[in-house]
Amino acid sequence: MANDNDTRVALVTGSNQGIGYAIAGRLAADGMRVVLNGRRAAAVAEAAKKVAATGADATGIAADVSSEQAVARLFEEIQSRYGRLDVVVNNAGIAPRIEGRSARVEDTPLDYWQRTIAVNLTGAFLVSRAALSLMKARRWGRIINISSQSGRMYTGFGSAYYAASKAGLIGFSRVLAGEVGEYGITVNCVSPGRIKTAMAATFANADRVDQQYIDRTPLRKVGYPDDVAGAVSFLASDAASFITGAVLDITGGFFMP
User: Fold this and answer.
1) Whole-number Cα distances in Å, 156 to 150, 151, 248, 249
2) Per-10-residue mean pLDDT, the chain, length 257
3) 0.85 exceeded by pTM
4) Kind and range of the H or E element at 142?
5) Among the residues of 53-100, which ranges form H helices?
6) Which one of the listed residues 82, 162, 213, 224 is annotated catalytic?
7) pLDDT tens digit sequence for 9-18
């Protein structure tokens, strides 16, 4: 019998680099046809080209997931190209820095709050909503939302606007899981801890934060994008068919609920 993944199609948002790129590569290695997504067309095309170079069926479609119109166009292209969508990984996310001031609530400009919520939370809502009809048609689907330890606990490392967006993803996922389970669709979150990415390295005192994390983690190390990709691969598979509304913490033991 052919592997079911040979025909499944996965969309990974925010996948031109870092965690999203690792997830797209892993799902492609699992045998899925993968749609990579990001806002910058050239970067998305290059990322898809690299995944396709491994022999995978990969394509890149640029779209701003915080825009309802852009998401509609994204799904029109997916429908036209594949006629189906089986797996959605809502990975697109931003964590904008406030230059020249702290990220404390009293110092946070409204536009930082609104833009972060728009991409990290509203984007997941728009993409998930658009995917449901395609998944319901086949009575099978996987929606995996990439949250963060910042949405699970006070870490001392982040901002309220980022934490709120990631905590909101968890609540959204649980409600959606309850609504669509009867259609064979599961909805889960992956909550990474400190992951070594190019974006993480750009933040102030990145090496010091890494060491603080290591000192508080039983495994005495930080994680890498492939650690998150492995968790997503499992949740996207048939092996995870009895898991929904769950949060899988990829933190090396930093967070133990």
Assistant:
1) 9, 12, 21, 18
2) 72 98 99 98 98 98 99 99 98 87 87 97 99 98 97 87 97 99 99 87 78 93 97 99 98 93
3) yes
4) strand 141-146
5) 68-81
6) 162
7) 999 999 999 9
Gap between the Cα atoms of 194 and 188, Å rounded: 20
> DSSP letter at 181?
G
Indicate the Cα dihedral angle 97, 50, 90, 95, nearest 10°.
Answer: 0
Is 162 one of the catalytic residues?
Answer: yes
Domain annotation for the chain: domains and CATH numbers: 4-249 (3.40.50.720)
Q: Which residues contact 140 (CB under 8 A, 6 or more apart)?
A: 86, 184, 185
Which tokens belong to 155?
A: 């870490």
Tokens standing for residue 210: 């890494």
Instruction: From residue 106, give the alpha-carbon distance in Å to each of 14, 113, 114, 154, 168.
Output: 30, 12, 15, 17, 21
Q: Which residue has the tokens 């598979």?
A: 237
**Token pair 């969508």: residue:** 85
Relative to beta strand 247-250, strand 58-62 is unpaired
C-alpha angle 199/217/92, rounded to 5°?
Answer: 30
Sheet containing strand 141-146, strands side by side: 58-62, 33-38, 9-12, 87-90, 141-146, 185-192, 247-250
pLDDT tens-digit profile of 108-166? 999 999 999 999 999 999 999 999 999 999 999 999 999 999 999 998 777 999 999 99
- Tell me how far CA of residue 78 lies from CA of 21, 24, 85, 134, 222, in angstroms: 19, 16, 8, 10, 35
